[in-house]
Design goal:
31% of the residues lie in helices and 17% in strands. It is an alpha/beta fold and 239 residues long. It has 2 domains: 152 residues, Alpha/beta knot, CATH 3.40.1280; 56 residues, Trp Operon Repressor, Chain A (Orthogonal Bundle), CATH 1.10.1270.20. Strands 2-1-6-5-7 form a 5-stranded parallel β-sheet, sandwiched between helices. Strand 8 and strand 9 form a beta hairpin. Helix 3 packs parallel to helix 5. It is elongated and about 70 Å long. Bound molecules: S-adenosylmethionine. S-adenosylmethionine binds next to strand 5. The site of S-adenosylmethionine (SAM) has 19 residues, from strand 5.
Length: 239
């Protein structure tokens, strides 16, 4: 899968790209990440990408020409144009369903904003999908782009050591519930014991316990995710 990132701050990414799962995926040729500095598509000697808003008001707006020209040029590179995404707090809110859908693409082009955002004509001309990572405002789209790459990456075959990891994650399981509690050694710590059933080796009972725990914790923490959020609580004492 190919990611193209359009940004005013390409220097933000190298540390992230070197982190283990992503760097291994890049090394193995499963993923490639291409950074594009928007300033390379400016026409003046100051390489200016922003200007004051028409009508007045605070802050600066990213100009239309460098973004449109940059995106048109990079879309022409590679085997086929990518699915075009513009990071924006005004976009569709990212969730695991959207992440799964994005993971079916072979190429994503992610446009990161800064300042007050983009001249509206960027959106009118390029018609990108606008995606938000939540109802809050970041200083720039770079962190949001990393969130998209990071979440999509988990779903690309061959990226994780064991593909069951992403299948059993919260939101990904059957009915989109939270994942069950996990434990590792030691068996007892400060008087707190690992649920004995997990030590039995009885795979069927363990699987049932995990399903029930997943349901219990979803009901306690995120009732809205349940297929039947109105159903009255049952007995929780299954261990
Ligand atoms: C300071 S924000 C601009 C916010 C804009 N003035 C508004 O109120 O809608 C600068 C850039 O950060 C990115 N950004 C901010 N919050 C975001 C969010 N919740 N999700 C995705 N990108 C976000 C966008 O790329 C945006 O263009």
């Amino acid at each position: 899968m190919r990611f193209d990132i359009v940004t005013l701050f390409p220097g933000i990414f190298p540390g992230y790209l070197q982190q283990s799962i992503l760097s291994k995926a890049i090394e193995r040729g499963i993923v490639s990440v291409h950074l594009h500095d928007l300033r390379d598509w400016t026409h003046d000697k100051h390489r200016s990408v922003d200007d004051r808003p028409y009508g007045g008001g605070p802050g600066m707006v990213i100009r239309v020409e460098p973004v449109v020209e940059c995106v048109e040029e990079i879309q022409a590179r590679g085997d086929e144009p990518g699915r075009l995404i513009l990071l924006s707090p005004q976009g569709k809110r990212l969730d695991q369903r959207l992440v799964s859908d994005l993971a079916t693409a072979s190429r994503l082009v992610l446009i990161c904003g800064r300042y007050e955002g983009f001249d509206q004509r960027v959106i009118d001309i390029l018609q990108p999908e606008e995606i938000s990572i939540g109802d809050y405002v970041l200083n720039g789209g770079e962190v949001a782009a990393m969130v998209i790459i990071d979440s999509v990456l988990r779903l690309i075959p061959g990226v994780l050591g064991d593909e069951r990891s992403s299948q059993e994650d919260s939101f990904s399981q059957q009915h989109g519930m939270l994942e069950c509690a996990q434990y590792t050694r030691p068996r007892v710590y400060r008087g707190r014991e690992v649920p004995p059933i997990l030590l039995t080796g009885d795979h069927e009972r363990i699987a049932r316990w995990r399903q029930e725990d997943s349901y219990r914790r979803t009901r306690a923490k995120r009732r809205d995710l349940l297929p039947d959020p109105e159903r009255p609580p049952e007995d929780d004492s299954t261990t």
